[in-house]
Specification:
Length: 323
């Protein structure tokens, strides 16, 4: 197979770097600057936690000392991994989705991820029970699967200094999406925009939407610090995304201390548990809001999200970097 000059130089640089870099863990993932999706945010938080264990981390590189490699979904360069791959490294594949189901179209992404898993992985981490079972229903079996939910960075997402809940003002709702895919819930938010009692509620939507709202305040995508502030300024998180395996936004909102109203789909029920209520149609939301407002303090007290330290510890055990 012929490779270009640029790839050849990249190969040489990577190999040389591998001899001089000391690392325990490599994360194969193409990071992008914020504001970006949940995978980027989670892996940054995990990276920090792994370093607190005294581990040395590298990105898209395999050093002579590398013991384990975490591959994130399909967000890395497979050809680069193939060139650098060594048999002495343990490969763990972090998988979400099924992405084609999530996006609502068959682009062959899930088949490609499955092929990568069979080719490289020794073990697999799924982000929800839903994700594992949905893949199995599609006829895709992955190497040695384990389920580990995501978690938010506590330095950014926390409930300290959040706005106090009050029934004596308008109840503040918030929703968010970094994608304008209609499966992210735009039609549900549009229904709310047209039918919710705006003398009793106010609502903020953060991110991208294919629908322009009349009553819902729209804010463009923001970085994690501002997103956390917005969560703490609001009372209830709404998510209507379909087939979402493990919503980072939902986890971040709960971590900031606000209960959730969610579409009964994907991994939402696994995340929220008793800290909110699920709906199957937009018309059910007003009554669910009434119930949640009535029991707000009790529901809020039932928020139970694993910490990033707990989740990272589970990851590092799967990666066999700690016992």
């Amino acid at each position: 197979m012929k490779i270009g000059v640029k790839d050849a130089i990249s190969n040489i640089v990577a190999l040389v770097a591998g001899y001089f870099t000391v690392a325990d863990l490599s994360i194969f993932h193409e990071f992008e600057p914020p504001p970006t999706g949940g995978g980027h945010q989670f892996l940054r938080a995990f990276w920090k936690q792994a370093e607190e264990y005294g581990l040395h981390i590298e990105n898209n590189l395999l050093s002579q000392s590398t013991r384990a490699c975490l591959l994130n979904s399909f967000n890395f360069k497979e050809k680069r991994l193939q060139r650098l791959k060594r048999d002495t490294v343990l490969y763990v594949h972090r998988v979400d989705g099924p992405i084609d189901v999530y996006r609502g179209r068959d682009d062959g992404v899930d088949k490609s991820i499955h092929a990568v898993n069979l080719k490289f992985a020794d073990k697999t981490i799924f982000q929800s029970q839903y994700s594992l079972e949905k893949h199995l229903a599609l006829g895709m079996e992955f190497k040695n699967p384990t389920i580990v939910l995501n978690a938010a960075d506590p330095e950014i997402f926390h409930s300290h200094a959040r706005v106090e809940f009050s029934r004596n003002r308008r109840i503040r709702l918030i929703a968010s999406s970094w994608s304008n895919n209609v499966n992210k819930g735009a039609m549900v938010y549009q229904w709310l925009d047209e039918h919710l009692d705006w003398e009793r509620f106010e609502m903020t939507f953060v991110g991208r939407s294919p629908v322009v709202f009349k009553n819902i305040r729209m804010i463009p995508a923001v970085d994690s610090f501002r997103m956390a502030e917005l969560f703490r300024e609001n009372d209830i998180y709404l998510t209507a995304s379909k087939n979402d395996p493990c919503s980072n936004s939902l986890i971040e909102a709960l971590t900031c201390g606000i209960p959730a109203i969610y579409l009964q789909s994907g991994g939402h029920p696994e995340i929220v548990k008793q800290a909110g209520a699920g709906f199957e149609a937009a018309e059910q939301i007003p009554e669910l809001l009434n119930q949640l407002i009535y029991q707000y303090e009790a529901v809020q007290s039932r928020i139970s999200i694993p910490s990033i330290k707990e989740v990272s510890t589970q990851y590092l055990k799967v990666l066999e970097l700690i016992s």
